[in-house]
Sequence to fold (578 residues):
Amino acid sequence: MISLNNYQCIQLHFQEQVNRTPEQIAVFCGDRSLSFGALNRQANQLAHFLAEQGVGAETLVGICVERSLDMVIGLLAILKAGAAYVPLDPSYPTERLAYMIQDAQVRWLLIQSHLTSQLPGQHQRLILLDQLPDRLAACSSDNPPCVVTPEQLAYVIYTSGSTGRPKGVMGLHQGSMNRFAWMWQTYPFEPWERCCQKTALSFVDSVWEIFGPLLQGIPLVILPDDVVRRPLALVDALSTWQITRLVLVPSLLAVLLEQVPDIAERLPRLRYWTSSGEALPLALLQRFQQQLPEAVLLNLYGSSEVSADATWYDSRDGAIGASVPIGRPIANMHAYVLDDANQHAPPGVIGELHLSGVGLARGYLNRPALTAERFVPNPFDAQGQSRLYKTGDLVRRRADGLLDYIGRKDHQVNIRGFRIEPGEIEQVLSEHPMVERALVTAWKEVLREPGGVIPPGVDPRLIAYVIPSPDHVEASFETQVQQWGAIFGHYYDHESPSDDPTFNFASWVSSYTGASITAAEMREWLDDTVEPIVARQPQHVLEIGCGTGMLIFRIALRHAPTGQPMSYHRHWIMCNNR
Fold:
């Protein structure tokens, strides 16, 4: 087992695993597979080839591939050459890819031939992975010397920027290795386990998905895009490959639980489910525990700036309040909840989450001002050697030490001088058993004065949107049908005020007095309404059920119907058998 305080580079740990299990299958992709030994040899050959092209320590090498064996070989080769990889998702718009390539000054780009049309016309050198076998055959398959240290770059992953410009986060070997080693020691792998790779390289969760299992000798199954995008197909693949651990966002977890009610029976081996990337709703955790009582849901919090994950909460720990905690820091990471004066916020008081530790990224590529703004000196470090990453997320520390996620700092609103955090209101709304999720936003209703002038001092209003829980929706449908049936029966099961079935105005009352409308008044209204319609001699009449049957009785006599009338009894049966 790797000590949390004894780091090497990712590729060196992989090579150690190769020495332990050279013949064991490392990667499955469709009907193809590679053993640890074969994967290492092919990656070594490509690494030597890259070195011959001038790739060296911290060179930024782009990689634009679909999920495949080539992807894993390419990533390992880049790291073995001492370089850092820059994922370029082929599904991205050309303009975004062009910006990333230019910003990272990518000179070498590993790519599959069929994806070259996706790239902008720039001058980086393309290395076509599927056309290299003959050239690589002459390259050495021995492990190249390691030319970097754990404090150097492993990747640059671009994330969305607040200005619309993506920003490249410079991730270090030591940050990823710390996250790996923490997971290995906290949730050790069993020899029979099997993991899958389904996340795009442009998301930092892919780093663990690929290297976390491989560096421990656990086979990796690469799932194709068309499977990952279809929840039912994804469950089929997880079942077929007997996957034991899965990383996913809460929104996907919700879909899987909704569409696969028997998911526990379908996936009996999938024990560890890791939720990250979004806030985990309490209702979703409760549903997970109901449908998968033997499985474990880990709620991980982090970002690319902290090597993917910095805090975690285990669903078996209990201690759930109004929301699912993001827990405590992982090994060698520290969490600070600071107020606006950069002082420790007391337990229960909301503050901005600041993180420090070995997982911090170097900063943002070519963005020194932004790096200085978000990565600041740690005032609580007596030696003055560490940094704090300002997450921009609001949290509060509970009395038991767990952290509750509240929301983004930049989502705060000011109403009549009060600073309001919509996330807190969302949490309270979500506590209601009939609410699955809630969203609170500030909306400014501008009432213009005469002349179009906006009056001063108009405050926004808080608007809440809720998604009802599925159980409540079902119950609500049944209740509404019953209520409509009762209303219908109340008004129509007794004697009609008229013997004429085409002139049944039961339940019609005056909007002014609430008293029943007389037959004379009703006939006058009916004649006045139908007369101008008939006078136009329409050839087609569309009856959409938003008025009264008394109108259509008179009009339909002059036109051939194209629809089938539906009786109340028939409609009631259909509603009760939905």
